[in-house]
Inverse folding.
């Protein structure tokens, strides 16, 4: 015997059937419709793109590098070209039918397959293999055995590519080009070197302060230490000029230390000086007045054993692009770019001779950059101080550093 539906169940079934009728009518009306396609089989096909060469020829930097791809049958509209490094798309910055300028993706490998597709063409280019190098890497582990942190301060590089770094606990270490770390001395008379330079006599020169002793010391590569000159205040940074003189920041003053080991105050500033660099016949200094907030970079021409009139190169406090950051280190590339190490969230900046500026490798260098030093090529080394430890960074700038006169 069939089971009869109750009245409520019968009403529900009728309602369901009524609801399905419009859906069935809709589906019947759509039966012959198809989803529109972006591909038009009747559109004329363009010629397939061809890669003939890439500049730079063998490699550039990942994530920040720019390269030029030459070839044929590209689109002059950047958006109509797809450039893939493996599976990662590059940003097409400019385009013509024979040349594409692209910014590389952040992909590091020795043999990355590159191919290009162009709107209207049916085929990708054949693969071309290319190398992308890291722009910034952690260079060496400076920590001592049994310790999970280390603080680093002054650094410099010799002509052979060895890097020297002052770490806490009276220690100076050497990092060879292959990354091997050895200890020059762990018994320096000073806790740390505010600044460290390779100098004449194949010695290391260290600006340091111990209690009331403020001085520049020399350390031979066997660890032997001597005092070069004593100073009346705290020496923070220094640099050699072409005549073998040393220009030193001492609190709010600049001193000149001669090869005969005399120290003379040359000029004073309304700020506490943090960084100094000799470049193209000038002494550049950076400093800040913690009370007034004034922070500037000045330069003064070297006139024998004196300095000419100072001029402001950058009013840091008024530079919106540096807001929230102080200058802690500066140096120059050979083409006159001023590289600024800061405690700004972006880490490092470049100030061009024409007054333009940019972040050095956005997102790759974090604060706080305490010290920087160029090797003989395009590598810039930096001490990045974190809250409890320090990193040693190796930065491939793609530019040669300005001459440094202290290296023997």
């Amino acid at each position: 015997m069939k089971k009869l539906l109750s009245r409520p169940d019968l009403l529900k079934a009728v309602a369901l059937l009524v609801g399905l009728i419009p859906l069935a009518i809709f589906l019947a009306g759509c039966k012959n419709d198809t989803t529109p396609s972006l591909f038009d089989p009747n559109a004329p096909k363009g010629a397939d793109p061809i890669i003939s060469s890439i500049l730079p020829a063998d490699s550039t930097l990942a994530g920040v590098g720019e390269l030029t791809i030459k070839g044929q049958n590209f689109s002059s509209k950047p958006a109509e070209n797809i450039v893939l490094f493996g599976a990662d798309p590059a940003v097409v910055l400019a385009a013509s039918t024979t040349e594409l300028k692209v910014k590389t993706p952040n992909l590091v490998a020795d043999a990355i397959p590159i191919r290009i597709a162009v709107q209207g063409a049916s085929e990708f280019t054949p693969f071309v293999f290319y190398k992308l190098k890291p722009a910034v890497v952690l260079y060496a582990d400076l920590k001592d055995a049994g310790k999970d942190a280390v603080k680093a301060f002054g650094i410099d590089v010799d002509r052979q590519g060895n890097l020297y770094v002052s770490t806490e606990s009276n220690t100076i270490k050497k990092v060879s080009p292959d990354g091997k770390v050895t200890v020059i001395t762990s018994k320096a008379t000073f806790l740390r070197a505010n600044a460290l330079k390779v100098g004449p006599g194949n010695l290391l020169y260290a600006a340091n302060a111990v209690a009331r002793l403020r001085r520049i010391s020399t350390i031979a590569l066997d660890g032997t230490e001597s005092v070069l000159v004593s100073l009346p205040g705290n020496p923070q940074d220094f640099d050699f000029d072409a005549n073998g003189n040393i220009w030193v920041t001492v609190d709010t003053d600049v001193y000149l230390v001669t090869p005969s080991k005399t120290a003379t105050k040359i000029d004073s500033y309304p700020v506490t000086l943090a960084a100094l660099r000799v470049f193209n016949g000038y002494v550049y200094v950076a400093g800040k007045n913690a009370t007034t907030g004034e922070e500037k970079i000045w330069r003064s021409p070297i006139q024998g054993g004196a300095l000419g009139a100072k001029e402001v190169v950058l009013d840091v406090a008024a530079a919106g692009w540096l807001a929230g950051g102080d200058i802690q280190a500066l140096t120059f590339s050979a083409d006159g770019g001023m590289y600024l190490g800061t405690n700004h969230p972006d880490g490092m900046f470049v100030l061009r001779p024409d007054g333009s500026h940019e972040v050095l490798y956005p997102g790759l260098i974090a604060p706080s950059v305490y010290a920087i030093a160029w090797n003989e090529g395009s590598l810039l080394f930096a001490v990045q101080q974190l809250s409890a430890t320090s990193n040693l960074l190796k930065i491939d700038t793609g530019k040669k550093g300005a001459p440094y006169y202290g290296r023997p």
Summary: The chain has one helix and 34 strands. The longest strand covers residues 109-118.
